[in-house]
Amino acid sequence: MTSQSEQGPTLCPYPDRGRKVNVPLRTPTLLALAMTAVFGTMTSCTEEASSPPSASTAAVVLPNSDIDFDGTFLAGTASENGAQPGTGDFAPAGQANAEAARRWVQISADPNDPQRGPLRDGAGRTLYYTTQDVVSAGSSTCVDVCARRWPPVVIDPQGRVFADGVATDTIGAFRRPDGLTQLTVSGRPVYRFAGDSAPGQTRGHAVDSVWFAATPSGGPAQAAATDRGER
C-alpha cells in the first residue's frame, strides 16, 4: 500500500494556474500545516477564477441600448466642432430621416437652467419624451402616425453626437422597427414635436398629459407650453 509520503504533490484544482503544494505528510503537525496550505491555495484559486474581467476586456456599449453605437461623442456644440451646413440638426425641416440629417445630433442642456430646463438640439428645437415609453426598454411606442407628429431623434450608427452640457454616459441608442437608430437620454427615447415652428418653443410640453420636454436626468422640464398652436 502506498504511504501518504510517497504520493505525488497535491495540485491546485485549476491546472492552468500552475500552482502546487508539495509537502510530505509524515506527522500530525505537518499534516495540519499541509492541509492549511492546500485549502489556502484552493481558496486563492477559487477567488481568482471568480474575479471579474478587467475593464480593458469588458465590452463597451452605450447605456440602455440594444445595439452597439460605433459613432463619436464630442463635447460642445455642432458649430464649435465644424459641422457642415445642411447636415444633422441643420438639415431642412421634414428631412430628419435623410442620410445627411442623420450624420450628427446635438443634445444641449438649457444654458439658463441646465438641470431642470428642456433639452435642445443643434437648431434650438426642444427634445421631448413620452411616459408611454418604458425607461431603458430599448424600444419606442411612437411609430407610424405618431412618429410623424413626434419625429424621433435618429442618427447614423456611426454618426457624431455633440454633447453640450450633457454627460455622455446618459446618452444611449436603440434600433427602431423601421431600422433607424434612435437616441435616448437617461433611458428615455427622445423626440421633437412637429408643432414647434421656432427654436425654443415648447408647444409639446404636457400634450395629452404624456408628452413632456425632457431634462438631462430624464424627467419633465420646468417649462410652460409656449405658443400653444398645434396640439
Question: SSE layout and pairings?
Answer:
Elements lengths: L9 E2 L8 E2 L6 H23 L21 E4 L28 E5 L19 E3 L14 H5 L4 E2 L4 E5 L6 E5 L5 E5 L2 E2 L21 E3 L18
Parallel strand pairs: 3-7, 4-7
Antiparallel strand pairs: 1-2, 5-11, 6-9, 8-9, 9-10
H-E order: EEHEEEHEEEEEE
Assembly state of the chains shown: single chain
How many H/I helices?
Answer: 2
* pLDDT averaged residue by residue: 78
Shape summary? globular
- The total of beta strands comes to 11
- Characterize the main sheet: 4 strands, antiparallel
- Into which percentage range does the β-strand content fall? 15-25%
Q: Provide the low-confidence segments as ranges.
A: 2-61
Backbone structural class:
alpha+beta
How is this structure best described in words?
The strands form 4 sheets. Strands 6, 8, 9 and 10 form a 4-stranded antiparallel beta sheet that branches. A 3-stranded parallel beta sheet has the order 3-7-4, with no helix packed on it. It has a two-stranded antiparallel sheet with strand order 1-2. It has helices at 28-50, 145-149; strands at 10-11, 20-21, 72-75, 104-108, 128-130, 154-155, 160-164, 171-175, 181-185, 188-189, 211-213. The protein is globular, with a radius of gyration of 28 Å. The termini are far apart. 12% of the residues lie in helices and 16% in strands. The protein has 2 helices and 11 strands. The protein has 231 residues and is an alpha+beta fold.
Which terms summarize this structure?
alpha+beta, 12% helix, disordered N terminus, 3-stranded parallel sheet, globular, 16% strand, 4-stranded antiparallel sheet, 11 strands, single chain, 231 residues
